Amino acid sequence: MRSVAVAKGIPRYQEIARELRRQIDSGSYPTGYSLPSEAQLAERFGVAPGTVRQALGVLVDEGMLSARRGARKVVMRSSVSSRGFNEFRSFAQWAYGQGRTPGGLVVEQRWREPSENDVEALRLAEGDEVLQVLRVRTLDGEPILLERTRYTPQVGRKVAELRPDSPSVTNQLRELFGIEFAAADHVFSAAAADDVDARHLRLAEGDPILRHLRLSRDRWGTPLERSEDHYVSGAVSLAVSNAQGNNSLGWISAPGR
C-alpha cells in the first residue's frame, strides 16, 4: 500500500479516510470486500487503532462501509457509484448515463390558472399563471414516462420557446437561458394508471405505475417547477444508499392516510 502524504493542518484520520476512499474508488477494495482489521490498518498506516477507527467512521457515515460493530468493515459502495444530482433529477441525463437513448414529445401545453398547491409550492403572486406541460418520455423509442409539469411564469416563458421534441429540457434551459436546477424534493409512491396514462403509455387503465412527485428549485431556493411523473411499472428501479449521519431518506404518510 502506498504511503499517505500528511497535509499540514489536516487530521491524520481524515488523510487515512481519503486514502481508503481512493482505494475503494479505484477498485482495490471492491464492493463486498472486507477491509483489513483495525489493528492491521493501524500498523500499515503507523497510527493508533483509535485513529483508524475515526477514519473508518467517516466512511461509514458516507455509506461506503458497513456499520456493524465488532466485525471487519465491508465495502458497500464507492463514492462515485452514487449518481449526481442532475442525473437523478433529469430523465435524459439519467438515460445517457445508462447508455440508453432518451426521447421526449410534448403532447399538450397551455397556460392555466394555478391550483392552491401550485400557489403555495411555487410561491406564486396573485394573478400569476403556470405553464402546464404534458410530455411523454421514451427510452430507446419505448414510452416509459408521462410527465405532468407546471412551471413558474418566468421559467414557463422559456420552456414555451423550446422544441416540443427536445430530449432534455433541463439541459436546454441551462445552456440557452442560464436557468439551472440546483435542488429538488422527491416523493415516490405506487399508483394506478388513469385514462391519460393509458392513452400515452400503452397501458390499461388501472395498471400499476410508479408515481414521482418533484419540486425543483434553483441555487437560491426559488421554486422553478413542480411535476407529477408516472413511470410504467418495471421500467425503472430506485436505488438509495443511506447511513447514520448521512441520511436523506424518509418515509411519509400517503395523502388521506
UniProtKB/TrEMBL annotation:
GO terms for biological process: negative regulation of DNA-templated transcription. InterPro entries: Bact_HTH_transcr_reg, Chorismate_lyase_/UTRA_dom_sf, Tscrpt_reg_HTH_GntR, UTRA, WH-like_DNA-bd_sf, WH_DNA-bd_sf. GO terms for molecular function: DNA binding; DNA-binding transcription factor activity. PROSITE patterns: HTH_GNTR. Keywords: DNA-binding, Transcription, Transcription regulation. Residues 10-78 form the HTH gntR-type domain. It comes from the Bacteria. This is GntR family transcriptional regulator.
